[in-house]
Amino acid sequence: MVLMNSFKYPESDIKCQSEDVKVFLDKKDLGTGTLFVSESTLCWKQREDVGWTIGYTNISLHAISKDTNIHPSDCVYIMTDGRLTMPGDTPPSEEDKDDSDVESNTDISEILLIPANDESISQIYEAIKVCQELNPDPMDEYDEDLSEDNDDNLYEDAEDDMEEAEYEIRERGGGDADIDDLARRIQSNSVDVHFDYRSNGNDDEDFQDAD
Question: I want to staple 23 with a disulfide (CB 3.0 to 4.6 A). Which of 30, 146, 149, 211 is the partner?
Fold first, then answer.
């Protein structure tokens, strides 16, 4: 995915505005301009309307970098989901590149934000973090809803099993003690299934939450 872009002044509240911010886009020096961290977009303006604007759902990672291999001084590092191109840039042709080059050159972009004032680095980082939380990825919400639906179905299935088993026990002449024992076993099994479902492919923190 290629993100053709240009500067648009933020239409939402600005959480952080920083002057004299140097920007590198995919190792290309774009110069120095003004950065706007608004609630809906991250924008950088060099002069007049020259710059870029990206939505937070297109930001896959942002961090404070102290790695001198990335830049000699500390900076805010941003990776975008999609390649960011400036007006006038020609996107790379897939026909001229093999599959590995296409993936590495068109699927992401790296942005470095280097403010003149080092103290602004943490302020910019925190503002982006807050605004990203205000703009969750719709797919993440869908996955969360799907997970909750599956969890509900697990418990509904367990309740259905309980009702069917209770009916069979009573038909065979079983008493309340047999039913209580069955309830404990089904409840125990449903917790195990729920735990396995949540922990599948997740990290240790999920296991702690499940405990």
Answer: 30
